[in-house]
Amino acid sequence: MRQFQYQRARTLDDATGLVSQDSTMAIAGGTNLLDLMKLQVETPGELADVNRIGFGEIEDTPEGGLRIGALATNTETAVHPRVRRDYPLLARAILAGATQQLRNKATTGGNLCQRTRCFYFMNIDQPCNKREPGSGCGAIDGVAKLHAVLGSSDQCIATYPGDMAVAMSALDAQVSIVSGDGGERSVPVREFHCLPGDTPWRDNVLEQGEIITAVTLPAPVMGGQLYRKVRERSSYAFALVSIAAVVELQHGKFTRADLAFGGLAHKPWHDPRIADALIGQAPSDDLYDTAADLLLEDAQGHGENEFKIPLARRTLHAVLKQAVEEAA
Amino acid sequence: MAETMTVNGSEHPIPDDPRVTLLDFLRHDLRLSGTKKGCDHGQCGACTVIVNGIRINSCLTLAAMHDGDHVTTIEGLGTPDAPSDLQRAFVEHDGYQCGYCTPGQICSATAMLEEIANGWPSDASNDLEGPVEPSGEEIRERMSGNLCRCGAYANIVAAIRDVAGEPKT
User: Fold this and answer.
1) Which residues of B touch A47 (CB under 8 A)?
2) Do A100 and B122 touch (CB under 8 A)?
3) What is the pLDDT of residues A188-231, one digit of tens each?
């Protein structure tokens, strides 16, 4: 690791003050950041340890939802009684990711901010527009098995690697963010992560000096909740394709169909047209094909990852069938 | 007051250089070489230790972040004369070949049995809310953060099941 200064924040104000400096990064669980610092992909001048500023609670909201503190670990969230009972999709998504040791350290805020596992991003000897703007993209025409088929650009085809945020996108959760000047804002998880476009170095909308304090889930819904992750190993592997689904039916027709997709894009993918196409309709293979057509109409493979396009279609069929059974 | 952490019951000052990982602090500064450095990137689990009752990868955390914490390493679980149940079971079941991953396996399994006792679900659990049976499938999923390049997995699972008790199913 390159040399850095270490400061422990005592309060939220402390933390936002520290991270307002250009060369300072916040560290919480550290499982991704320290990995990248060892690879010299990240070289902060100063780390602001935010682990002791509070914000680790998981609390009921007056609206019947759940507010998950930014410093609640992935394990604490996944085993929380209300998450297991009311948001099984979220518990399943978290448990499908990483290992118990990593989930015990990884936090809600840190998990949202985790960086891509693109091989070219993680290797400083390779070109990468995300790590080193203007250096090119090694993955396009390179080793691209894990890479994006939706929403990529000619600058970057990296994927967002996480599972938790995919479930939070399907649940339409909100990210609470504060800044050093006392400002607070709330961003839907669906809008928190960015597409690469011409600014592939930008993973999400968080600005310098801002800190995530919580993610709030809306009141739970009835019906079926499902997270299916397709991967190369049955444990400790990133998603090739994952789908989070929240589905409700009344009188044999969809009344809710909130779907989010992992492994396909630079962000958890959510396309509101899919819900529009499903709601009011009775489940059928033809209907699922229509949904898959919408999802994949602009999909573009890059050699090795082209298999993701038919895989996403088949996984979508399987998930909708199972979610409908669970919702019935 | 100087910052300290407690390792296997003894208090130690936190190192000055913030770059020192908990793993390097244990091995180099405290000479507790039971904890192993495998990949140094959180992939192999050889560095697993128990901090405040929770198993973590000691390679992916800074010693500076552990002021006031209680750390248990393989040396703190038992001794050759008085091994822990899992240490004894790994010997009985031949749960290793080269032994390099073993301290991490045993620290990991020690905390894992607590997680099962607490009813924490895993990706292999059919029911998120029900009690957890320590089946082979559950143990394999829960131990997926500990690799064994010798491939002693069958005996590792047997050793853990010996201590966990035979599941009903």
Assistant:
1) 18, 62
2) yes
3) 999 999 999 999 999 999 999 999 999 999 999 988 999 999 99
On whether residue A10 sits in a domain, the answer given is yes
Choose from B65, B116, B127 for mutation: most chain A CBs within 10 A.
B65
Average pLDDT, chain A: 97
Pair (B119, B51) in one structural domain: no
The answer to whether the pTM exceeds 0.90 is yes
Written as one string, the DSSP assignment of A164-219 is: HHHHHHHTT-EEEEEETTS-EEEEEHHHHB---TT-TT--BSPPTTEEEEEEEEPP
**CATH number (domain holding residue B55):** 3.10.20.30
Residue found by looking up tokens 């390792």 in the block? B7
- Residues B104 and B42 placed together within one structural domain of the fold: no
Shortest CA gap B78–chain A (Å):
21
A116 and A130 in contact (C-beta within 8 Å)? yes
Of all residues in chain B, the one with the smallest CA distance to A50 is: B65
Quote the number of domains for chain B: 2
Assess if residue A123 is contained within a domain. no
Q: What is the mean pLDDT of residues A129-150?
A: 97
- CATH number of the domain to which A251 belongs: 3.30.390.50
Domain of B156, CATH number, reads: 1.10.150.120
Is B41 domain-assigned?
Answer: yes
Nearest CB among A35, A88, A104 relative to B54 is that of: A104
The pLDDT score that the predictor gives to residue A49 is 98
ipTM above 0.90, yes or no: yes
Lookup: tokens for A164: 């938790």
Residue where one domain finishes, among candidates B54, B77, B100: B77
The reply to whether residue A3 touches residue B145, judged by beta carbons under 8 angstroms, is no
- Mean pLDDT value across chain B: 96
- Chain A contact for B54, CB < 8 A? yes
Distance from CA of B33 to the nearest CA of A (A): 20
B52 interfaces chain A, CB cutoff of 8 Å: no
Question: Which residue out of A39, A80, A95, A99 would a mutagenesis test of the B interface target, given it has the greatest number of B Cβ atoms within 10 Å?
Answer: A99
A46 touching chain B per CB within 8 A: no
* For residue B168, pLDDT beyond 80: no
- Chain B's closest residue to A76, CA to CA, is B120
A106, A98 Cβ separation under 8 angstroms: yes
Which pLDDT belongs to residue A57?
Answer: 98
Reported as a single tens digit per residue, the pLDDT across A238-264 is: 999 999 999 999 999 999 999 999 999
pLDDT of B167 > 70? The answer is no
- Do B60 and B32 lie in one domain? The reply is yes
The secondary structure of A116-165 as a DSSP string is P--TTTT-TTS-BTTTSTTS-BSSTTS--TT--SSS--SS-------SHH
**For residue A255, what are the domain limits?**
224-327
